[in-house]
């Protein structure tokens, strides 16, 4: 995803149209192709992040509960939506060249409406994923401090809901803009940030021990021992010096 965003930036995204040289059909074709690659990788990254979080939830949610049923339904919902999005993005125009050359005969789907639908769908699933662990975390047998820490870490997932709302505004701005190369940049930024938040939330179970007092103390002790060993090694004479002393 970052690679396609970089290629789009090299192609002029983030610049005003007046500052871009060589603004022609090949330029538009290059950017649309890179945008397709960005859309595919973006949707894959968001899907895998949500699948990781939901899979973690299913490890602890008791069987036969409404929460588990809701989690399984959400897994199916995001899994079935992925191929639909990929097919629509890949076949948004028939022939595909019509996407950058409207003069060609053919048809194109209304990508604006579809992007609004997809973004709203992401927001809905993000809200569900944010709500699902609240009851589980509140009922676990842990210290209040540990519960608050876990709730705070998983609460970061609500930031994805905020990002989704901002993306809707950015998408609307890009479709009504007359300076689309400039107004396309916020969509790339917020999309990559949403992917980063998803990766962070999916990594929360592995990150939690890093913030425990025992782990912090152990890490500080290991760093101190390593520094002491390195200092003693520097003071120790080399093998060549030792050989001269013995001779």
UniProtKB/TrEMBL annotation:
Where on the tree of life does the source sit, at the highest rank? Eukaryota
> What keywords sit in the KW lines?
Membrane, Transmembrane, Transmembrane helix
Record flagged with keyword Metal-binding: no
Q: What is its main location?
A: membrane
Sorted alphabetically, the Gene Ontology cellular component annotations on this record are: membrane
Q: Establish whether keyword ATP-binding is in the entry.
A: no
Q: What is the similarity comment for this entry?
A: Belongs to the SAT4 family.
Which residue numbers delimit the Rhodopsin domain? 6-213
Q: Name one Pfam family in it.
A: Fung_rhodopsin
Q: Where in the cell is it found?
A: Membrane
Annotated signal sequence is none
Q: What is this protein called?
A: Rhodopsin domain-containing protein
Regions that span the bilayer: 42-61, 73-94, 114-136, 148-175, 187-207
User: What membrane topology does this protein have?
Assistant: Multi-pass membrane protein
């Amino acid at each position: 995803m970052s690679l396609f965003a970089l290629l789009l930036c090299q192609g002029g995204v983030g610049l005003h149209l007046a500052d871009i040289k060589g603004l022609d059909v090949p330029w538009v074709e290059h950017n649309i192709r890179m945008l397709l690659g960005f859309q595919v990788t973006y949707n894959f990254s968001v899907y895998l992040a949500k699948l990781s979080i939901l899979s973690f939830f299913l490890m602890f949610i008791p069987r036969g509960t409404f929460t588990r049923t809701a989690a399984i339904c959400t897994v199916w919902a995001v899994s079935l939506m992925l191929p639909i999005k990929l097919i629509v993005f890949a076949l948004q125009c028939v022939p595909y060249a019509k996407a950058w050359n409207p003069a060609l005969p053919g048809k194109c789907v209304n990508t604006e409406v579809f992007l609004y639908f997809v973004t709203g769908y992401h927001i809905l699933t993000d809200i569900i994923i944010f709500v699902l662990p609240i009851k589980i975390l509140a009922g676990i047998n842990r210290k209040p401090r540990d519960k608050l820490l876990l709730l705070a870490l998983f609460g970061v997932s609500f930031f994805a809901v905020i990002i989704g709302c901002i993306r809707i505004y950015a998408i609307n701005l890009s479709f009504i803009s007359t300076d689309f190369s400039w107004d396309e940049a916020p969509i790339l930024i917020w999309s990559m940030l949403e992917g980063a938040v998803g990766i962070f939330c999916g990594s929360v179970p592995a990150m939690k021990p890093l913030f425990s007092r025992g782990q912090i103390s152990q890490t500080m002790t290991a760093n101190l021992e390593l520094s002491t060993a390195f200092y003693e090694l520097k003071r120790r004479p080399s093998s060549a010096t030792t050989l001269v002393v013995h001779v």
